[in-house]
Structure formats: structure tokens, C-alpha cells
């Protein structure tokens, strides 16, 4: 039976407050300075220094500005690092606007297909409500970026630079999501009226043509052929003519995207380790690469990330960046704020509990560029962010190893670093992974 809060209860709670040691002083501090400043510990600032035993030089950080393209920036950053080194082009960037255009376009088609698949369900069904909540957004995951590259290639930033809407995407997103929801009304009505497959496809083609126009007006038209002109760090001039986005990727990046595997650390009861997972209705390119996550322990994830760093290659990763983090200091550490002591209570939850109860999920993707290994164990990690040079130390952050354990949910490594058994499991389960619900936290899109 439900019980209301009584006046006697309130009096007891007030008395408990008054009996709390230093309550008055703590109240003044929090009221005047806020929770984080009042709970901040200086210990993290002295231990989380930018010194690492493995430290890959990656140059000037990029800036995603007021957009949720962190996953895209992080992935393209891992690719540009090799270009900078091999071709001696300091501070070179790939076009984030180019992949942004195709992601928006492909997400529109992906949304339409999911609307048609769920057209027989009530509008208030959980799946339909989930679709309509955000028809498309800026966020994404590693496999979604590689699906775009496999289909469309990539180009230098000089060939398709930023626009107002790529750097500040909220206006464009509002228009596009309005358009997609309106189109969903039309598609669901066509299905309800038993329209022919041909009529439905014709309607969808018209919708996609209009979506393309919206994106062309806001982001520009993606190039199909271009010349790559640059001057290297030794001041030598170069020009490479008549490239396509695919030939540019093949020549200047040269990766086999299938060689890279997404690893997750989700220690929840519904996701046994050492198995492959996907997420229903998560993706962007119909017929392209699908999301595949291999679940491992946090220690295993760290071990594999270190192997890739030791080989001189940076590591894409996804985390809950807002937890125990100070973007100005560039420090990510569970000891950064002592909220338990401040409020005289326990706010501790396990990683699994945070995932199961909606307290945490992946919100942001960045790049690991270094690690400090002491007595054979990692103690802190160097992180290249994409929030410009004003955040952290010239755009670089440092994460404690404990923060990695608690708030890193995904890393991407070359499969060659996995054990033979891990590689075999991925191969055997690739075509029939365990399918997670659309709202599963492992389907969260990095978008900070």
C-alpha cells in the first residue's frame, strides 16, 4: 500500500540534516559554488599529468563545433594520423562534412525502411515511438562510418569544407526531422491503404530526392572527382589529379575496413562475454556494413588497445564522457569529484547497474593516442578529443585507468590483435549475432 510523506517524516528529515556534521558550511559551499566545484578533489589534478610511456604524436586536434559528429571526427582522425605521417602533411584533416552529408542521406533512407517494416504496428508501440523520437541525428558508431566509406569513400577537407550547418547542425536537423516525420505519415498511410509496392517505392524516391535537396542546400554537393593539391612539411608542392573519393581512400588511407572490429564492455547479465551482438534498427546504409559488437572484459579491451598503440596506431573509443570529467582541465577520473563525502551518502553503482538502470551509456567518441604503463599495468590514457584546442590541454585529455574501467564502453582494434579463438568466434557468429533491442544501451549513438 502506498504511503504519503507526512509532516512527522519531514520533521525527522530536517532533524537528520541538522545533525549532519558541518551541514551549514556544506550547504553554503554548494549553494554558492554548485555541486561539482564543491566536490572537486585536487588530487586528480596532481596525478593526471600529460606524461605517458607510449605517446603517439598526432598533431593539432580537430573541432566538431556545435554538432554531434564526434564518432565521425574520431574515426577520420584515426585515418588522418597515418596520412600525416606517411605524406608529411602537418595538421591535415579529412572532410567531416562529406561523410556528414552521406550519413544524413543514408539515415533518411534507413528511417523510411524502418517505418515500412513497422507500418503494421500501432503508432504508440514502443518500436514506432522509438523511431519517431529521433528520426535521424548527428550521432553514430564506428561500423556506421565504415559503411559510408565503403560506399562513398572519403575526401580531403579542402575539397568539401565545413558549412554553417555542418558546424552548427540544429537548424538543419529540425527541418530534416520534421520532413522525415511527415514522410512517415505518408508511408504508413500508403501501407494502411494497401498501396502497391511500386507506388510506395515511387513515393519514397520522391522523398529521398527532396532530402537530397535539403542536404545540398545546407551542406553542399559532395564531389565525385577532384584534384588533391597540397604542400608538405618540407614545403614541397604536390598535386594528384582526377581522384574519386574511393580512389583517394584507397591511395591515401588504404585500410581494409573489414579488418577492424568493434569491442564492447557490457558486463550485464543479458550479454555474456566473448559473443557477438548487433542492435535492431541501428545503422545507416541499407545493404552496407552492419553493426557488430564483440563483448569482452574491460581488462581484455585494455590489453588489445595497448597492442595497437604499441604498433604505432591510434585507437577509436566510445565512452560516457560526462561522468567524472572536467572538460576545461581535460581530466577524466572517478576521483575527480567526491560527491559521496559532500552529501554524506553513497552514490556508487556498478558498471552493469548503471547500464541496466539508465544511469550511463556511450555518449561520445574520441581517440586514444597514448598510455602510461607502470610496472606492467596501465595507469592513465592519453586522449585526443574533437572539441578544439581550448578544451583540456590543447585539446588533449587524460583519463585514469579506473575511469577507463568504469566509463569506456567501446574500442575498435584490428582483428589481428585478437586471439585465434576470438577471431574464430567472430567469424562463426557474424551472420547470426545476438540481436539486442533498439533501445539497448549498446545501441547508443555517440553524439557529444
Automatic annotation (TrEMBL):
SUPFAM superfamilies: Cysteine proteinases. It is found in: Cytoplasm. Pfam families: Peptidase_C1_2. InterPro entries: Papain-like_cys_pep_sf (IPR038765), Pept_cys_AS (IPR000169), Pept_his_AS (IPR025660), Peptidase_C1B (IPR004134). The keyword Protease applies. Keywords: Aminopeptidase, Hydrolase, Protease, Thiol protease. PROSITE patterns: THIOL_PROTEASE_CYS, THIOL_PROTEASE_HIS. One of its GO terms (molecular function) is aminopeptidase activity. Belongs to the peptidase C1 family. This is Aminopeptidase. It comes from Lacticaseibacillus jixianensis.
Amino acid at each position: 500500500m502506498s504511503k504519503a510523506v507526512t509532516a512527522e517524516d519531514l520533521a525527522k528529515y530536517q532533524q537528520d540534516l541538522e545533525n549532519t556534521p558541518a551541514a551549514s558550511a556544506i550547504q553554503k559551499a554548494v549553494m554558492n559554488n554548485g555541486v561539482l566545484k564543491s566536490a572537486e578533489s585536487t588530487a586528480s589534478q596532481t596525478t593526471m599529468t600529460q606524461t605517458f610511456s607510449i605517446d603517439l604524436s598526432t598533431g593539432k586536434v580537430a573541432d566538431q563545433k556545435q554538432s554531434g559528429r564526434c564518432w565521425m571526427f574520431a574515426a577520420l582522425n584515426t585515418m588522418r594520423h597515418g596520412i600525416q605521417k606517411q605524406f608529411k602533411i602537418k595538421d591535415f584533416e579529412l572532410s567531416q562534412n562529406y561523410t556528414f552529408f552521406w550519413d544524413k542521406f543514408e539515415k533518411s533512407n534507413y528511417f523510411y525502411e524502418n517505418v515500412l517494416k513497422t507500418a503494421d504496428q500501432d503508432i504508440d508501440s514502443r518500436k514506432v515511438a522509438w523511431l519517431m523520437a529521433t528520426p535521424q541525428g548527428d550521432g553514430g558508431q564506428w561500423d556506421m562510418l565504415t559503411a559510408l566509406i565503403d560506399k562513398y569513400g572519403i575526401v580531403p577537407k579542402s575539397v568539401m569544407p565545413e558549412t554553417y550547418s555542418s558546424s552548427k547542425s540544429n537548424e538543419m536537423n529540425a527541418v530534416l526531422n520534421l520532413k522525415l516525420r511527415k514522410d512517415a505519415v505518408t508511408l504508413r498511410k500508403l501501407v494502411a491503404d494497401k498501396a502497391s509496392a511500386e507506388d510506395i517505392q515511387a513515393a519514397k524516391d520522391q522523398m529521398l530526392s527532396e532530402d537530397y535537396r535539403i542536404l545540398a542546400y545546407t551542406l553542399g554537393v559532395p564531389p565525385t572527382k577532384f584534384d588533391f593539391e597540397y604542400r608538405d612539411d618540407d614545403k614541397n608542392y604536390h598535386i594528384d589529379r582526377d581522384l574519386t573519393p574511393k580512389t583517394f581512400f584507397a591511395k591515401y588511407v588504404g585500410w581494409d575496413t573489414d579488418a577492424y572490429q568493434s569491442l564492447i564492455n557490457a558486463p550485464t547479465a543479458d550479454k555474456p562475454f566473448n559473443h557477438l551482438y548487433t542492435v535492431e534498427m541501428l545503422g545507416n546504409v541499407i545493404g552496407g556494413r552492419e553493426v557488430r559488437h564483440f563483448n569482452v572484459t574491460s581488462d581484455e579491451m585494455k590489453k588489445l588497445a595497448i597492442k595497437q598503440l604499441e604498433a604505432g596506431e591510434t585507437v577509436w573509443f566510445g565512452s560516457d564522457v560526462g561522468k567524472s570529467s572536467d572538460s576545461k582541465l581535460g581530466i577524466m577520473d572517478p576521483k575527480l569529484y567526491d560527491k559521496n563525502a559532500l552529501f554524506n551518502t553513497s552514490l556508487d553503482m556498478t558498471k552493469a547497474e548503471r547500464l541496466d538502470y539508465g544511469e550511463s551509456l556511450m555518449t561520445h567518441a574520441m581517440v586514444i593516442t597514448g598510455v602510461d604503463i607502470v610496472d606492467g599495468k596501465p595507469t592513465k590514457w592519453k586522449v585526443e578529443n574533437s572539441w578544439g584546442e581550448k578544451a583540456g590541454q590543447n585539446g588533449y585529455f587524460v583519463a585514469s585507468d579506473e575511469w577507463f574501467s568504469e566509463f569506456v564502453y567501446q574500442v575498435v582494434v584490428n582483428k589481428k590483435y585478437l586471439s585465434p579463438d576470438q577471431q574464430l568466434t567472430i567469424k562463426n557468429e557474424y551472420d547470426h549475432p545476438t540481436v539486442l533491442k533498439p533501445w539497448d544501451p549498446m545501441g547508443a549513438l555517440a553524439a557529444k
